[in-house]
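Q: I'm writing a short explainer about NAD(P)/FAD-dependent oxidoreductase for a general audience and would like to include a description of its predicted shape. Could you first generate the structure from this sequence?
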Amino acid sequence: MFESGSRNGPTYGTEFDVVVIGAGAGGLNAALVLARSRRRVAVVDSGAPRNAPAAHMQGFLSRDGMPPAELLETGRAEAAGYGVEFLDGEVEEVARIFEEGAPVFTVRLADGVVLAARRVVVATGLRDELPDIPGVADRWGRDLLHCPYCHGYEVREQTLGVLGTQPAAVRHALLIRQWSEDVVLFRHTLEITGEDREALDARGVTVVDGTVERLLVEGDRLRGVQLAEGSCVPCHALFLVPRMVPRDGLLTALGCERGDNGWVATDRTGRTSVPGVWAVGNVVDPRALVVSAAGAGSAAAFAINHDLVGEDVEQAVQDHRMVKELTGVRPGDEY
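A: Of course. Here's the predicted structure. Afterward I'll give you a sentence or two in plain language.
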């Protein structure tokens, strides 16, 4: 369908069994397993991982404490060792070019490169929308944190704060209490019910009323929170529930259906409602950690390879029958 060519190593304008969009843990693990299944795989990545601000990642067996960039670099090298081809760039469009029969897709990059694929894996992640409070963007992923399972142990037994910018902040404060006895919930714009206050009081979480004006930073370390009313409350680390927005434009443009939660729906293997399209990681699951995204990529790869094997067998049978018909060989004659 497409002519082969080469530019700085990767092959361009050719047909792949699978094109993976996004080279985070989910995308890379999918590519690795598929390549080990002797599938021809290309990975396209824009180079903007969600966890880039974090110095380390935790909770990944055998990789605990590894810098996220190191994990991705190692993953790329492993996948490339099995023949996976990497392209750096932004995917502008994925189009299904055949509506009947086996799905075939074109993947068009911003620089004009077009790839053809029998199957597509979208692993483009999500973006965190942060409140417009001075200091928040600068400290994000450092001492302004989201996931206590990723960072809670490292700030255990310190004075920890929670910004009340989302309704989930109350639950977050109660969760973070597991890592410290000194937890402060900054109510900010959050309305707290009497039932919530009772739970917070029972667990010893202090509620601070007032609007947060800015984060106090000294010596490149968070020292506390300043309120608009003038008071300053010390804390060593601050937690925030951001508004998580999936980077799912490629999926919705293809017509992938959303679930009741508003996110693109998949089955247990990452299969979407559009035949031939899989999605893994934070683009469809806001709760996915690095290790679970990697597992989802593996599950998707298994399912995709089985899907392709079925298609390969069907095509082989059709070709076999055609050869018999053209050569005049009737069933049983060859025996």
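A: For your explainer, you could say: The mean pLDDT is 92.
Q: Perfect, that's easy to follow.
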